[in-house]
Amino acid sequence: MADARAGTGARTQRTPARAWSPARRGIWLLVPPLLLLGLFFVLPLAYVLIQSGSAPKGPFDTYVRIARETSLHYPLIYTFRTAAIVTVFALVLSYPVAFLISRARGRWQLVAMTLVLVPFWTSAVIRSYAWLVLLQRRGIINEALLTLGLVDRPLRLSNTDIGTHVAMVQIMLPFMILPLLSSMRAIDPSVLRAAAILGANPARQFAHVYFPLTLPGVGAGCALVFISTLGFYITPALLGGSSTMVAVAIEQQVSRLLDWPLASALATVLLVLTCLMFLLYERLNSRLASRGGA
Amino acid sequence: MRANASEPLWRIVGLGLTGFAVLVLIYLVAPTLAIVPLSLSPDPFLRFPPPGVSLRWYEAFAHSIDYQLAILNSLKIGIPAAALATACGVMAALAVVRGAVPFRRTLAALLIAPLILPQIVLAIGLFPLMAKVGLVGTYPGIVLAHAVVTMPLVFITVSAALRTYTPSFELAAMTLGANPWRTFVHVTFPMIRAGIVVGFIFALTFSFDELILAMFLTSPTTRTVPRLLWEQLNYQMTPIIAAATVVLLGATIALLCLAAFAATRSRHLSGGAKGVQP
């Protein structure tokens, strides 16, 4: 037995082709990452599911409560609506910026890219704090308006839906601009020239050639922004609004009301919604890809 | 859309679009810069126009033991977390891109999942589990949590680096008798080094900025910079936060420049290899 093992060891060193047999080549490399993922990602998620059914009144009590009580399911509806609003505004604002950057040359492109990348890597805590400095009762905007005599009393800008949405769109912009930009850079300019030669004006070139070619980027950007907004915590928790986002509601259930089963049920719903949106995106994306191929 | 662009109508449309895009860029960048005048204000409350310039909040920041401890904690947590994420992310990328493993698509989706999933969901599950084994409030607890959420960043950057060149380099090395380890050290690693460095920096930055897991899994002695900022924002707003934020902003920009530098250097290095791609 020992001899046989020693023999394989020696052979492994001399004939590597056999050690890295093509059938399950590299499978052992997956052991550490999957261990990390299994223990600290899959297991906790399974625990969330179990915890959501651990309410004293029965395993489905928490879900029944979420369905029945407006104060519990309204954050979910509000979160979905907010994600839709933020995604639409981010797309409309990002498209021209990405277009401009994809057309810019040399130094201008570098400057514009820096203006997009620095916010992308700046902490959301810092960027939300900046909005608080701008929007609060004695913040920069109100002080400026008062000094200039444009208003008599400070306006209520923070703790409003509009203020929070404006801040969330701004924080999400880079997540929309970057995917758009990568799809725009992949477009062959000769395609547009061909359309122009065939007599299409810029509007028709855009509608029939350019925009359809950027659809993968539009899809990726929208999916990224929508899914990230579903779990948005920092900005809504700091700036407030008329209603709470579901991530804030989960945190409040845990830290203020100590209701872990209910928080877990809300987290499970958020998890399922996130997965559904991701699957929907994958579905659309593969359909788009197959149509592009045909 | 370049042809026909000489017509006045389309030129006006183009100018309008450019103006709109510039306004969006200002909206993207300017609000964050509002912190700078606040950090330089001598008053504890913001006034407009600012009554003068003072560095007292920067001085207070430099002398604050809370911040010193938090920065040290962020480093003690971020560096091991990013290192672990990098080791696991590289192995996962090698297996999925170069290896012959089953369920490749599902695996890739699973490896990216921690980045997509809202951190609050993971925090709700990790906290009670880690509490049971006594990991809450310890360094290993938060390091492991950050490693799991940052591994996808390394997986993505290293997978992209592996896809930029053909596997025939590795095949050639192995045909010439190199074992897998030597092949990795002498062929694969030099080719994907930049991807690994960029992935590591991304993971480090992510860990430095992460709030929600830190809120649940750190204690007052292991709390990180974002958690300290958050607590100060919610309980005692002082312009020290503004000074701290400006310093952190500078650090972020410095790290970004480092990542950009690593990426450009690699493009020069692997420029020759890219041409071989079939």
Automatic annotation (TrEMBL), chain B:
GO cellular component: plasma membrane
Transmembrane region(s): 12-40, 77-97, 109-130, 142-162, 183-208, 240-264
Gene3D superfamilies with a match to the protein in the record: MetI-like
PROSITE patterns: ABC_TM1
InterPro entries reported in the protein's UniProt record: MetI-like (IPR000515), MetI-like_sf (IPR035906)
Predominant subcellular localization, coarse grouping: membrane
Pfam family, one: BPD_transp_1
Keywords: Cell inner membrane, Cell membrane, Membrane, Transmembrane, Transmembrane helix, Transport
One GO BP annotation of this record: transmembrane transport
Subcellular location: Cell inner membrane; Cell membrane
Lineage top rank: taxon: Bacteria
Membrane topology qualifier: Multi-pass membrane protein
Domain ABC transmembrane type-1, residue spans: 71-259
Similarity comment: family membership: Belongs to the binding-protein-dependent transport system permease family.
Protein's recorded name: ABC transporter permease
Highest classification ranks of the organism: Bacteria, Pseudomonadati, Pseudomonadota, Alphaproteobacteria, Hyphomicrobiales
